[in-house]
Amino acid sequence: MPKNTKVTQREHSNEPVTESVADLLSLEHPMDYKSSQMSMGLSPGSTAPVKALIPSPDPDAEDGRPAWNNKLEYILAQVGFSVGLGNVWRFPYLCQKNGGGAYLVPYFILLILIGIPLFFLELAVGQRIRRGSIGVWNYVYPQLGGIGVSSLMVCGFVGLYYNVIIGWSIFYFFQSFQYPLPWAECPIQINGSQAIVVPECDKSSATTYFWYRQTLNITSSIDDTGGLNWKMVLSLLVAWILVCLAVIKGIQSSGKVMYFSSLFPYLVLFCFLVRGLMLKGAVDGIAHMFTPKLEKMLEPQVWREAATQVFFALGLGFGGVIAFSSYNKRENNCHFDAALVSVINFVTSILATLVVFAVLGFKANIMNEKCVVDNAEKIIGFLNTGVLSKELIPPHINFSHLSTEDYAEMYGVIKTVKEDIFDQLGLDSCLLEDELNKAVQGTGLAFIAFTEAMTHFPASPFWSVMFFFMLINLGLGSMIGTMTGITTPILDAFKIRKEILCVACCVIAFLLGLLFVQRSGNYFVTMFDDYSAGLPLTVVVFLENISVAWIYGTERFMQDLEDMLGFRPYSFYYYMWKYVSPAILVLLIIATVIEMAISPAGYNAWVEAEGAEQFHSYPPWALAMAYSLIVVAMLPLPIVFLLRHYNLISDGSNKLSVSYRKGMMKDISNLEEQDEQRFILGKNPSEAPSPMPAPRPYLGPGGTQEMTNTNYGTSTKTGYQNIGSPESEL
């Protein structure tokens, strides 16, 4: 034993000597720290397959892991990943459907209860362990290592169809460079000596026709594939080339892309908001949007949809959040990052809602005025043929300048006097409220309703170019995060050149994505959107929560965060992680299963002869395909659990690198210098030196009440780890 150690000094001196963990570790033989295991509430001599989070690679160690150029790039990457197309076309729809301003209350409550805590949890484990989604959960609890594999599977499914939507946006973007816009008017076809409007367009609308026929050239059912739509194949190819170029050089290049792709949408949204507020009827749309229907707050469905939106708005469970945070420095304040990104996401949703309903309010006024004109012509026809008496028309009404108020008065008189034949007249009420209540979401909002509104804008091509360029950037930001969630765990597990892996992933994804650019491809996009992510991701995040809060231990995790961040997180997170978030996630899983069981499985097919959508049930093969998406995404969870439970595969750990061990020793030395008294092993010089550090009681979430674990167990692999003492994580 070296003569200058404090153990030796104690043997030759009567002075009390404090002995630190670093001193003891300096006497240890080299060992595989990564394969060492923690005992938690077990009998002596038994082991538990729970890795300590604390021995993570030091960001300054030469482990070859890339790092963000600066904090701003990282924040923009997280914002770009979490703020996506759903903020623009899903949140406004849910807000309108579920009570307007009243919907914001359950959404904000659930953002606080599950959104921010779970987002913080993913940021923390990624930053601490510095691995992708697969490596992180192999460290925390190897038997639940399937969590990372399931995340990767879901990322793959979502990326396949999400990039198709970017492809659609690219097609519309290039179509916007012409005046008038190609979807502004219905096309004319020559029938002999007559020029007539295409019947399909005449029965629907110009924008609807352009979407379903000119863009998708859609078939009437999912059974009829119709072959490839080559315009969409080319658009999808361009989309995958953009994504591949953005991620191929790693976070150094994708971080720089985020400067534009994350910030540009806010510029466009702000411009649309200013322009929208200047349009006639914009105030009507916004007022309708935020008029609270408080009775809606009592409906369970509203809370379920709010929880689902919170869940997906932040990108929880995809692996992208963990992957991005794994490139951070260890001391980065991820608690601040979690709150900041969550608030930005919420504010973006509100901003997008204001823009959408300002524009839709304008569109509703246009459509309402058109309705008044069309029905006024009907009334004039009835007056000329004698069906209606001219005495029914109030004397102050002028048909050449008919306002909506005048029409409403005339409509009421006719309905009252001619009640017996009123239904045969076919007059519409033309209420602005009815137009505003026509809820649209998803592709219906972006490619039909919004494009129709923009045809009435002055300089409509400019606004169309801006809008679809914004959608492309929103989609790219999310796709970069999704692809990072796929490539990071693979690169952590295998020594592959990043460029080769990215190109291979993009090529394979493009080939698989050809399913979605058939003429029936839109039906498969709907299927994947409904089935591939919802339930599997909810289960994944629930298991993430359980593995950290209950298997690894909330107390230990809180202590790890204090050692990593330099301060103890609020006790609020302790209770959210341990009790509230798991309970809400269980309720959400149950509600999702019930919703899938009682709701008919099907899709809205476009019927060309009618010029309208019609609900069709999935044929047996399509239904089997839909449910197989759920099974395939969740299958890694039980498979990995059983294989590791019966020791058929390793626990996913490789030997730690030298830099990894150096980082661990550096952590201990730094902590010792800051507060060596925390690691005192013996207070009385007469005590015999112990090979184990004395357990330090953990102070509960409030930091005042001592929490102890009396059922100690010791690991058979290491001589310095002890359950119940945070030193065991150090």
Automatic annotation (TrEMBL):
Q: Which GO terms describe its cellular component?
A: membrane
Membrane topology, as annotated, equals:
Multi-pass membrane protein
Q: Quote any Pfam family the record assigns.
A: SNF
InterPro entries in UniProt: Na/ntran_symport, Neutral_aa_SLC6, SNS_sf
Q: Where in the cell is it found?
A: Membrane
Tell me which residues bind Na(+).
G80, V83, N87, N345, L474, S478
Q: Where is this region: Disordered?
A: 1-21, 683-730
Give the main localization category: membrane
The annotated regions of Polar residues compositional bias extend over 705-730
Question: What are the alphabetically sorted keywords of the record?
Answer: Glycoprotein, Membrane, Metal-binding, Sodium, Symport, Transmembrane, Transmembrane helix, Transport
The membrane spanning regions, by residue number, are 74-92, 104-125, 146-174, 232-251, 263-286, 306-327, 339-360, 462-488, 500-519, 531-552, 572-598, 618-643
Molecular function per GO: symporter activity
Protein's recorded name: Transporter
